[in-house]
Amino acid sequence: MQNRRLGRRGVLVGELGLGTMTFGGRGEGWRVDEETSHRILDRFVQAGGNLLDTADVYSGGRSEEILGTWLAHQDREEVFLATKARFRTGPGPNRVGLSRKHLRNAVRESLRRLRTDHVDLLQVHAWDPWTPLEETFGTLDQLVKDGLVRYVGVSNFRGWQLEKALQLCRQRSWEEPVSLQPQYSLYARASEFELLPLCEAEGLAVLPWSPLAGGVLSGKYVQGVRNPPAGSRIANAEDPGAYARRFDNERTRRTLSALSGVAQQAGRTPAQVALNWLLARPAVTAPILGIRSVEQLEENLGATGWSLTPTARAQLDEASELEVTYPYDRRAEEQQTADRTSP
To answer: What is the domain partition of the chain in residue ranges?
Structure first.
């Protein structure tokens, strides 16, 4: 696994990150137990990975606890540890959001569960319309000054929200976001309209979550999402029909067909091709893998060390392209260019 800069910062992270939302079960469903989680972590760092991504709400905090028991036997400085805060962690009125009170409490509890004195990247898990940006990012800046956090990032922000946060931090000389964690994959490409160009221009790292669209791009669903294979995430979902309503459409079928064809031509699995496509996208630093077994991790690691041909990338681009309207359509871009180059 190769290392990449975290945006324009000097710190390096592996080109694949390990997400831990699957950690914290008892071996049933799509969550895995502590023993399996530790085996996955061991293999990931053995392969050269160092970016571990969690959140205070994953499995009710159990994901962080499992990471903590594993970290207790590791060289802490060899790991780049990321967590998140924003969503509800208890019944009280202030156990949610991006207020100073909740953020500081959330960080304290995360550090306790993780058994460490700092996190390398603290990401706000989503926008909070109730809390002023000044309160949120002033608090994040102080957490960095206190030594509890090394870098600050955001997740699930829209373009205007991220740019507003960046400008505020620069005006106040606060620690500004160094990364964005959006949903991004061959299936979910809306981030290309605003977020990816913004991150590329501002030098932010992009850490896509759900890079295989919840397993839909893994090659498992050869009979479609309405007939998921036993043991798959969709088969184990509380409402499998919700996945069918979301993914059972012509664009998904077209994308999966192209993905299968490219995978056969390349001698790779569909999951490896989908991840390799994502690794080559502008501004992308490290897709965050969701792993349930060492075998699944081994397959995903096979996405690195090679490149799709330009023809293969073009096939995937065309098959998965979203319907584009003004102001994102190519005609508008061509007109803007013509305005600058015409005499």
So the answer is: 3-341
